[in-house]
Amino acid sequence: MTALNTLKPWHDPVGRWNRYWFAASNGLRLAICRIVVVAAQLLLFTPSLENQLERVRANDGFTEPQAIITAVCAIVGEENFRTVGVITAVYWLTVAVGVTTLIGLFTRASAFLFAAGTFLIVTHAYSYGEEHHPEALYSIFLMLLAFSPSGARLSVDAWIRRRRTDQPGGDGRRLRYPTALWPIKLTQVMFALIYMNAGMCKLHDGGLAWMNGYTLGHHLFADAVLHDLPVGIWLARFHGLCVVMSVGTIVLEVFFFVGLLLPRMLPVILLGCAGMHIGIYLTQNAPFFQFLVLYVIFIDFERRRRSNA
Questions:
Q1: What is the spatial distance between Cα 268 and Cα 275, in angstroms, rounded to a whole number?
Q2: How many CB atoms lie within 10 A of CB 303?
Q3: Contact 159, 171 (CB under 8 A)
Q4: Contact at 8 Å (CB) between 242 and 236?
Q5: Does 69 have pLDDT greater than 90?
Q6: Would you call 48 exposed, middle or buried from its count of C-beta atoms within 10 A (0-12, 13-18, 19+)?
Q7: Residue/partner pairs of 239-246 with CB below 8 Å, 24 or more apart
Q8: In this structure, are residues 152 and 136 in contact, taking their beta carbons and an 8 Å threshold?
Q9: In sequence order, what are the beta bridge partners of 177?
Q10: Ramachandran class of 38: left when φ > 0, alpha when ψ lies in -120 to 50, beta otherwise
Q11: Are the C-beta atoms of 149 and 179 separated by less than 8 Å?
């Protein structure tokens, strides 16, 4: 036995790195994530066409053009892009390739065009002075689908491949893909970084005072009054509860990454974060539903299927 074969895992950082990002997968997990995330984008999260056109009609130009919009307008001209006809065409083309991504037809090309169209639609809406951020990670994951075998399973492409090969494993069930998990792993890491950034910013801007209960109570009351949310007004009255929620928010955000290192802790952390986002929506009218749908990437469907077999 050679010395190379006797190396322990912690003596082989490159190998551990590759095993983390490029572990072999049959593609089922990525395929399910593709279907769930794309379906939710099409049915729930794509801004309405009327909303897009209303912004065009109500404004003489962009007030705060996003980087993607600036780049597009530099190529085609703002006067040519910012028209009812172009925005309508972009919208319906995005919906069309979204459907082909959902069913897995020409999956890689469809996913790329769908992600690009989604970026364009979202940034167009945000180029008139109103900007949010839950869509960013969601749109990035859509783009990652284009650079992975997301259509290897549960897709029209897989069905066509099976018909051509005329073999039981022709749809990819018996194949192993070393690039089927890296989009999922990368998005999980980005989740951890986003949450940690949110928690660290709170501590940087407010220090420990952010967790004194009064800060959160103030924000709850102000947002609840602004959006007429009785739950927020009621909740802001309980200082002790505000302290608990403040501390819990910081702990969940800063230490979310622990769930990636200790998978047994992940369900508890995800449930806590889901409760946090639902509470934020009910008390402050800040929707993070894209995050909740994207939690599907943390479910190991392949392991669940093996355990049920």
A1: 11
A2: 10
A3: yes
A4: yes
A5: yes
A6: exposed
A7: 239/213, 239/214, 240/213, 242/213, 242/214, 242/216, 242/217, 243/211, 243/212, 243/213, 245/216, 245/279, 246/210, 246/211, 246/212, 246/213, 246/215, 246/216
A8: no
A9: 25
A10: alpha
A11: yes
Q: What percent of the chain has a predicted confidence (pLDDT) above 90?
A: 78
Question: In one letter, which amino acid is 139?
Answer: S
Residue identified by tokens 């322990």 is 8
- Mind listing the pLDDT tens digit for each residue in 204-257? 988 888 899 999 999 999 999 999 999 999 999 999 999 999 999 999 999 999
Nearest to 195 by CA among 250, 253, 138: 253
* pLDDT bucket at 106, cuts 50 / 70 / 90: very high
**Spatial CA neighbour of 269 closest among 254, 279, 280:** 254
Give the tens place of pLDDT for each residue, 26-41. Answer: 999 999 999 999 999 9
Largest Cα–Cα separation, the chain: 74
Distance CA(220)–CA(281), nearest Å, equals 11
Write down the pTM of the prediction: 0.90
Structure-token pair, residue 307: 């355990």
User: Rounded distance, CA 164 to CA 161, Å?
Assistant: 5
* pLDDT at residue 62, as a whole number: 93
Contact predicate 190/137, CB 8 Å: yes
Name, in order, each residue with C-beta under 8 angstroms of 33's C-beta and a sequence gap of 6 or more.
141, 150, 184, 296, 297
Q: Which two tokens stand for residue 252?
A: 């969940």
∠ CA 6-178-293, rounded to 5°: 125
